[in-house]
Design goal:
With 477 residues, the chain is α/β, with parallel strands linked by helices. The chain has 14 helices and 20 strands. Strand 15, helix 11 and strand 16 form a beta-alpha-beta unit.
Amino acid sequence: MHTTALKIADKPAKNAARILIGSKDTNWEKQGFAAASAKLIKVELDKKISPVMVVDDGAYNFVFAESTENSYANNEKWRKVGAKAQVAASQYKLDSVTLVNATDNKDALTHVVEGFVLANYKFDKYKTLPQSSSTVKELVLLKGSIAEKTLKEIEHLTDATLIARDLVNEPLSHLTAEMLSEEITKMGKEAGFSVEVLNKSKIKSLKMGGLIAVNLGSPNPPTFNILEYKPKKAINKNPIILVGKGVVYDTGGLSLKPTPNSMDQMKCDMGGAASVAGAFYAAAKNELPIHIIGLIPATENRPGGNAYTPGDVIVMHSGLKVEVLNTDAEGRMILADALSYAKKYKPELVIDLATLTGAAQRAIGSQGAVFMGNADDKVKKSLSDSGYAVYERLVEFPLWEEYDEMIVSDVADIKNVGGATGGATTAGMFLRRFTDYPWIHIDIAGPAFLEKTEAYRLKNGSGYGVRLLYDFLKKRI
């Protein structure tokens, strides 16, 4: 992770490179530009050229303009401005730039900062040859343009998102289940939340049959991670529980993934675990007064050794018996044990995140995630509103009773796959069987790992879910 130093200064340093954000009505002369330069900026902005680059006394100035209306769509435009500004600054190999808000919308600045920092990321730790840097070391904001507390909150939240990206981008050779537990433990020590790691023998003693079954073909043991952040003045009596799928690599098991390139990205199958860990980091660093517990089952899904097979019947932590018809439907097997384990905490709400189904990805692509659950409409609306607020949007899928009939097994209580259609929802129905509390399932298979850069969401691990969960938790305060 390449962190961006965020600083507040009384005024721009002499000859400092600047990023200026404004609107069609901004008086650019008041921002220090000569009349001719101000006229040029206005003409270029009217042509929808963005950014307009002006050199003044040897210093670079990158000028942007957008509508100052405060809406979720415009807020996203400002984040994209931040990403464009990062690209422009890095192209000129600038180590430091000063951000100037020439609009009457103070919130615009926070979104620009967010987009800039998230775009200013590189995963290059395994590069040995000299690299030409494309990251900016320092972003300076002017005193009075943003509150220090707000800037610190943005810093912690973006750091959490970039940490989640790092985890998703790590290959299995450097991130087994045990290594993932070590990384989460480090995060806890740094941010201020506790982490308990259950080893294989403890997992067996808890009769987590789903997690043990998926792990049978792997040479590396599983872990079950329990995260807890409980501030003294927490507003909730019962905890909110976040559950993250932690399949650190997925071959499909004996139901080996058959399509070309289908395994190339499967180090990302722990994207849900990364999002949950990142959300804990952000919540603890920003001292949200809310009690949360995280449950992260972690393993590989491999076809070796004594791998579980299609036709096997697995006794789950809840006692339900599951007929396995596809070993590549492994995520729901380990999540089911975690959802069942969550009952002991008498939760106010449980939210699980998982790169669960290709069906969800095919349905809405990378532009958002699918969600479903039995929580009340108020919770669903709040979560959906947070999705729009941070532009990690959600689409609700139904949990109609007919889908439940599709997972009834001939030989056991339920089977781990439904029919050829409705795959995202039958997976949700499977998970619902292990809940007896308000619950939401979010399938992040589409946006968790990107094939190309989308503004500040860079190619590969996106960190999707961290900002969504944080915003949702914050709005419950």
